[in-house]
Design a protein that fits this description.
This protein has helices spanning 2-15, 22-33, 39-49, 128-141, 160-168, 185-197, 207-224, 235-246; strands spanning 87-96, 103-111, 117-123, 148-151, 172-175. The protein is an alpha/beta fold and 247 residues long. Strands 3-2-1-4-5 form a 5-stranded mixed sheet, sandwiched between helices.
C-alpha cells in the first residue's frame, strides 16, 4: 500500500514542480481521490523518499523614511476575520530581474477572512503611485468594503494622501509596530509562499516574463491552491461558499 502511495506522491511532486510540502500534499491527495490520508503518514513517506518543498529565502528589507501619518496597531495580531472584506492587509515586495536587469515591485492586498488576494499591481518603481493604484483597484472591485486596513510603516502608507484615501471609504488605519514584521504576519507569509512556489523555480530574464508569472501564480493561488485553514478549499472557493450561506 505504501509503495502505491509513494508513487502517487511522486507524481504530484513532479506535476506541481516540487512546491508542495506535506500539508499541501495531503490536502491535494485527499481532495483528488476523496480519501482521508493522515498528514503524519504523508510526511513520513515524503521524508523516506527524500522529497520536500523548496526552501524559502529571507524577507526583504525596508526603506527608512520620516512618516507624515502614523497609526496604532489596531489589528493587534488578530489575524482571524468573521466576514469577508472586513480586514485587509497590504505590503510591497521586490523581485530581481535576471542578472543586472533591475527590479520588479509587487503591491498586493490580502483579505484575512478567506486569504485571497483582493488586488495587486506590479511596477518597476516602488513609489506611492504603486500602492495608491493597488488600493483604488480593491475599492473599485469591492465598493461596499469598509475594512480595517493594516500596513507596515513604509513611506507609501504614512503619507497624507494615502490617509485621505482610507478616510474616503471609512477604512480604519492600522500599522505594525517599528521592527515587528510579525504584526503583518499573514502578508509576510504570502510573500514567502509566492517566492517559494513561483519565483524560485525559474529565473526570469525580463520584466514581462516576471509580470506574467506573478499574474499566473496569483490566479492559481486564489482559485486552485487548497488550504487546510480554509477546510481544504481555495480562497475563492471559501469566499463563494461563505456568500452562499449568507444569501
Amino acid at each position: 500500500m505504501d509503495q502505491e502511495l509513494c508513487q502517487i506522491i511522486w507524481e504530484h511532486h513532479e506535476e506541481q514542480k516540487h512546491i508542495l510540502g506535506y500539508g499541501q500534499m495531503t490536502i491535494l491527495m485527499n481532495r483528488l481521490s476523496r480519501t482521508r490520508y493522515n498528514e503524519k503518514r504523508i510526511r513520513r513517506l515524503m521524508r523516506l523518499m527524500g522529497i520536500s518543498s523548496i526552501i524559502r529565502r529571507k524577507r526583504k528589507g525596508y526603506i527608512k523614511s520620516t512618516p507624515q501619518i502614523t497609526a496604532e496597531n489596531v489589528l493587534n495580531r488578530q489575524f482571524k476575520a468573521n466576514e469577508s472584506d472586513t480586514k485587509w492587509l497590504t505590503d510591497v515586495t521586490e523581485f530581481p530581474i535576471g542578472k543586472g536587469g533591475g527590479k520588479l515591485y509587487l503591491s498586493a492586498i490580502l483579505d484575512l477572512y478567506d486569504r485571497r488576494i483582493v488586488s495587486y499591481l506590479v511596477s518597476n518603481r516602488n513609489n506611492s503611485q504603486l500602492v495608491n493604484e493597488t488600493f483604488d483597484r480593491a475599492v473599485a472591485k469591492y465598493p461596499q468594503a469598509e475594512p480595517l486596513f493594516h500596513t507596515d510603516r513604509g513611506f507609501q502608507y504614512t503619507s497624507i494622501q494615502f490617509k485621505h484615501k482610507l478616510n474616503r471609504v471609512n477604512a480604519i488605519q492600522s500599522m505594525s509596530r517599528v521592527g515587528r514584521c510579525i504584526d503583518n504576519g499573514p502578508m509576510e507569509g504570502f510573500w514567502g509562499i509566492l517566492k517559494t512556489e513561483m519565483k524560485h523555480l525559474y529565473e526570469y530574464h525580463t520584466y514581462e516574463e516576471l509580470k506574467m508569472a506573478i499574474s499566473n501564480y496569483i490566479d492559481f493561488y486564489n482559485n486552485h491552491r487548497y488550504q487546510a485553514k480554509l477546510k481544504g478549499l481555495s480562497p475563492m472557493e471559501f469566499r463563494v461558499q461563505a456568500l452562499k450561506k449568507v444569501n
